[in-house]
Amino acid sequence: MAEAAVKPPSLRGRFITFEGGEGSGKSTQIRKLAERLDAVKLRAIVTREPGGSPGAEIIRHLVLSGMGKLLGPDAETLLFAAARDDHVRTVILPALNQGIWVLCDRFFDSTRAYQGQLGQVLPGLVNAMQRVTIGDLKPDLTFILDVPVEVGLQRAAARRGNAVADRFEAEDVKFHQDLREAYRQIAAEDPQRCVLIDATADQETVADAIWTALREHLRTSMTTASPA
Ligand code: T5A
Question: Is 25 in the pocket of ligand 1 (CB under 6 A)?
């Protein structure tokens, strides 16, 4: 459980997550956003899930190797949750509470999409794991990178080269189509937090769209924030 209290958003760094299907460009865009924040002198760390802390990286190795799949969907969900718990407690919360921005490559929407919608893990378990691992901590803003399935899989395959596809990249095309729909649904259900980004364009165009959306989010959140 995330023991450290979460400071109110006005007193902590911003928490921004990147979500989307395989090869949608999350890692590329998170690096670009970190560079832009650095250029305007905002301190930010880049991290990822599963992983991001020494304990969680061990679990990452386990789940991406396919070992978690052998245990069944519920147990695999518990592995992602255990990794998230460690990551939130040891990396994300301490940074946010020091006023540092956290840019995270995947977070709980990945569990909702991959394990909840596609793995058919019951909402009760997904919700309970969310409560236990992140408590009141929600991303301030989530970019959901949207690309046609074939584009994402081609990009992932080109980057992978001769290496073997990991646990989820190896799923069939129908899985990835359903995944794209699951993410679009998440974006539609939480429009205050989620921004769906068309990530088919070139990298700089996508980075500009993300930067514009971030500035708009900051402008809106400042005008709607209640006085302390
Ligand atoms: N998972 C994770 C769960 O099931 N439940 C959970 O709770 C969590 C947290 C993690 C896996 O774990 C699952 C989901 C995932 O399957 P991972 O290795 O971290 O796996 O991989 P992914 O998060 O899927 O990320 P990828 O590395 O596959 O893709 P990215 O980060 O979206 O894409 P990126 O930036 O590496 O780009 C891929 C290639 O495309 C190029 C890049 O240069 C790169 O070569 N590219 C572009 N090319 C053309 N135009 C653009 N706009 C481009 N943007 C990037």
Answer: yes
